[in-house]
Design brief:
Shape of chain A: globular
Distance between the termini of chain A: 25 Å
GO molecular function (chains A, B): orotidine-5'-phosphate decarboxylase activity
Radius of gyration of chain A: 18 Å
Number of strands of chain A: 8
CATH superfamily of chain A: Aldolase class I
Keywords (chains A, B): Decarboxylase, Lyase, Pyrimidine biosynthesis
InterPro entries (chains A, B): Aldolase_TIM (IPR013785), OMPdecase_type-2 (IPR011995), OMPdeCOase_dom (IPR001754), RibuloseP-bd_barrel (IPR011060)
Number of helices of chain A: 12
Largest interface: A-B, 55 and 55 residues
Pathway (chains A, B): Pyrimidine metabolism; UMP biosynthesis via de novo pathway; UMP from orotate: step 2/2
Order of helices and strands of chain A: HEHEHHEHEHEHHEHEHEHH
Strand order of the largest sheet of chain A: 1-2-3-4-5-6-7-8
Oligomer: homodimer
CATH topology of chain A: TIM Barrel
Family (chains A, B): Belongs to the OMP decarboxylase family. Type 2 subfamily.
């Protein structure tokens, strides 16, 4: 997918919502547990009920790996379903990988080629050669962790370095790498005041923004400081949407929550 | 496993060698490709031929994920084999994970509980709450990336922060976390001159050291500056051992390479 195609989808759906498929067996409706693949059945129902309101879906690989082989199978079925039934949506493997060059290339193959996700999240700690194998894949995006939404972000990411705070050094340095136009960045909504500074460094790249809703970030604040002329934002909500109900009508309830956010987004876009 | 048990094994085998099972279908002997699970067959042969010379085995998850479901199955079979046949060895899931707290807990479950690895490698970028779910698992170890062996280590890890270089801030900060006695650290052998400084900050923790051999690090230099009174080092070699030959007798060749290193280690220990 190209940035232009993503932008077109945002205009068409009047939405820049990403739904996080953090599918947890302990939290999904009990009646699904009797099916052969509860995780996939849950995801399918959520996707079917929300795909006109969301431009992106983001399974977090941890929730799948926690079930070993069976979970990995559910992940593969989920991405196959998205690619076949809803090829217009932007898919994100929220894997937070990163290793030495030849090893990162293996992860890039797994997520961007074999499973055919549009993008994968990557941790920057190991530097350029750990990220470049992802960036080398044509028409795919690498979403680099910059300033995350959790408390632990304050441990290292905002440390003052030679140059600037660490997360800004990550932004600046990564902009010098080959194919940097294929970069997006994770910036937590819980840190809305930082978006102004971030946009000075990366005016054009899309930002993937977790932390709206359950974690307390404000959609309005993020848009005020983070939006660019191609929107440039994917706002993720996971638990607030997918666990709106754990009863039979869970998918309709999830749709209601997604609709609330999409309606706010339509206003912000107009 | 406890540190004491690991130390006992080191004394018994006169070795602190870790063998990296970076098993790549493109590099294993061709005759194995006809078997049902070439990756597992390769790993099994390597383990059988070297387990008296190595105290630890470290599959890098990227090489398994690159084959999707089948690869994940090979990983599970490999760790099961190690746990059943060689319960004395220290097993490392080289996964370099790290996510917000509830998500890291899923990874901790997958690797330390369900698959029952003794340890898992974790990236520090997201800070305390991304690491603590791993540290919370009793009698298991969390191996935090500190100063890696690749070129990209220079991009961020040695950036001067408020306090000190970033990797030193990672070492110091993580030492204040609960259960920090369950921490080990990745420090690349290609940076032997750094070990002296590192040992001032973390005198007691084990260091997992990649980069000896193929990547050019010196075993003698690492031991000179990095060894403590419980040895405190696990020296990893992957390609130099497991790809010593790609012919029928590959396992014996791998043993020869492992023996060369073990003999050097026995000398350094005496």
């Amino acid at each position: 997918m190209t940035t232009e195609q993503l932008y077109n989808q945002i205009q068409q759906k009047k939405s820049f919502l990403c739904i996080g498929l953090d599918t947890d067996m302990e939290r999904i409706p009990k009646h699904l547990l009797a099916t052969e693949d509860p995780i996939f059945e849950f995801n399918k129902a959520i996707i079917d009920a929300t795909h006109d309101l969301a431009v992106s879906y983001k399974p977090n690989t941890a929730f799948y790996e926690a079930h070993g082989l069976k979970g990995w199978h559910s992940l593969e079925k989920t991405i196959d379903y998205l690619n076949q039934k809803h090829p217009e949506v932007f898919t994100i493997a929220d894997a937070k990988r990163g290793d030495i060059g030849n090893t990162s290339a293996m992860y890039a193959k797994a997520f961007l080629q074999d499973m055919n996700f549009d993008s994968v999240t990557v941790a920057p700690y190991m530097g350029k050669d750990s990220v470049s194998p992802f960036l080398a894949v044509k028409d795919k995006f690498t979403i680099l962790l910059a300033l995350t939404s959790n408390e632990g972000a304050f441990d290292f990411q905002i440390q003052k370095t030679d140059d600037d705070e660490l997360y800004k050094t990550v932004l600046k340095t990564s902009q010098t790498w080959e194919n940097s136009e294929n970069l997006m960045y994770v910036v937590g909504a819980t840190k809305a005041e930082y978006f102004k500074e971030i946009r000075k460094i990366v005016p054009d790249n899309f930002l993937l923004v977790p932390g709206v809703g359950a974690q307390g970030g404000s959609l309005q604040e993020v848009c005020k400081y983070g939006m660019n002329d191609k929107v440039g934002l994917l706002i993720n909500s996971s638990r607030g949407i997918i666990y709106a109900s754990n009863k039979e009508g869970f998918a309709e309830k999830a749709r209601e929550e997604a609709l609330k956010i999409q309606e706010q987004m339509a206003q912000l876009l107009s």
